[in-house]
């Protein structure tokens, strides 16, 4: 069968309409009932809906059947999104609510703002799959699946999925075993978290780059030309977007320095936490014994331990010692420290 043309030759409009419609329906349900059960579930499943929709519409191509490359990139997106949505749904059923939304859940515009951002996230990250299945791309013949680029993409995808899924399970089990007191002081520093402070973010980033790598093969091998060629390469926006988001916006910046600051000021096993920070790469997995001996300039460059992540007590803390009082030149230090323990900074509330 031939690919179906809907609104445009790249399925950009239909995927945008479906995404906005689906997210708005879920938003009104979540806002009306004031609960968080479907928020992350809606985001994850939206990827699956777009992958299935564009694959079904784009079935056909130049040879009258689905090309294996279309199937692979679509299936990879479906597996990733179903796994993510399923895990987040399971977790929210256990916790009951998501504290990220405490200050916006009852505010219509603030809560809607989050859902609008989720629409953009889904639509942008889906671009490699959307464009791979689009009529203006599938009308060109392609090299058989199995090129070096395809195999490298499959290997990277498997590595990324293992890191993302494995670290999610490990962190969940770690937290479920903690008592209220030990959860404040324990450090998850084994398994995946011995190699990276954010193995789930590393896995997510690798997954998106692997999907793009496979999707762009038709253009890179010289089979696709013109606007379709440009469109496939433009889908690099998807892995760039997720990388930028996790490294500079909502991922590591809200975790690295704020969590270290909280540990230090409240005296929650700061020594153990700092030892983990010093020995563990922030993103790219690396043996801790070697990372601990790594020169600072290599940590800042090759291993992406950017200054914005680094917590310096002298610059970023309100207290002089871990769990101690303010550095006010003496006098009243103990009482000031006790007052600070009860005060939660704006940064901490964001985490």
From TrEMBL:
Where do the record's region annotations for Disordered lie?
319-351
Basic and acidic residues bias: start-end ranges: 341-351
Which segments show compositional bias classed as Gly residues?
A: 330-340
TM ranges are 12-33, 45-65, 71-90, 111-131, 151-174, 201-220, 232-254
Report if keyword Transmembrane helix is assigned.
yes
Q: Which Gene Ontology cellular component terms are annotated? A: membrane
Write one Pfam family the protein is assigned to.
DUF1295
- Which keywords annotate this record? Membrane, Transmembrane, Transmembrane helix
Q: Which InterPro entries match?
A: UstE-like
Presence of the UniProt keyword Transmembrane in the record: yes
Query: What is the name listed in the Swiss-Prot or TrEMBL entry for this protein?
Result: Steroid 5-alpha reductase C-terminal domain-containing protein
Organism of derivation: Akanthomyces muscarius
């Amino acid at each position: 069968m031939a690919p179906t043309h809907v609104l445009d030759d790249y399925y950009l409009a239909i995927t945008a309409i479906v995404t906005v419609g689906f997210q708005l329906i879920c938003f009104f349900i979540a806002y009306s009932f004031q609960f968080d059960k479907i928020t992350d579930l809606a985001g994850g499943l939206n990827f699956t809906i777009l992958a299935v929709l564009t694959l079904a519409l784009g079935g056909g191509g130049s040879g009258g059947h689905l090309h294996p490359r279309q199937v692979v990139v679509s299936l990879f997106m479906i597996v990733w999104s179903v796994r993510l949505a399923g895990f987040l749904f399971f977790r929210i059923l256990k916790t009951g609510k998501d504290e990220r939304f405490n200050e916006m859940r009852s505010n219509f515009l603030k809560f809607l703002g989050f859902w609008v951002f989720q629409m953009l996230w889904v639509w942008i990250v889906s671009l490699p799959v959307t464009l791979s299945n689009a009529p203006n791309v599938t009308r060109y013949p392609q090299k058989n699946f199995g090129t070096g680029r395809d195999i490298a993409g499959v290997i990277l995808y498997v590595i990324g999925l293992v890191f993302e899924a494995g670290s999610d399970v490990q962190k969940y089990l770690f937290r479920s075993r903690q008592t209220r007191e030990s959860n404040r002081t324990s450090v998850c520093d084994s398994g995946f978290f011995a190699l990276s402070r954010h193995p789930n973010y590393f896995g997510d980033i690798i997954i998106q780059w692997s999907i793009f790598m496979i999707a762009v093969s038709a253009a890179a091998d010289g089979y696709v030309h013109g606007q379709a060629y440009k469109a496939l390469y433009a889908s690099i926006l998807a892995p760039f977007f997720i990388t930028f988001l996790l490294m500079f916006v909502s991922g590591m910046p809200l975790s690295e320095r704020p969590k270290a600051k909280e540990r230090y000021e409240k005296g929650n096993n700061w020594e153990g936490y700092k030892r983990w920070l010093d020995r563990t790469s922030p993103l790219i997995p690396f043996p801790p014994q070697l990372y601990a001996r790594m020169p600072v300039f290599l940590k800042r460059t090759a291993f992406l331990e950017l200054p914005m992540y680094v917590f310096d007590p002298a610059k970023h803390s309100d207290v002089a010692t871990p769990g101690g009082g303010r550095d006010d030149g003496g006098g009243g230090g103990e009482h000031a420290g006790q007052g600070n323990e009860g005060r939660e900074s704006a940064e901490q509330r964001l985490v």
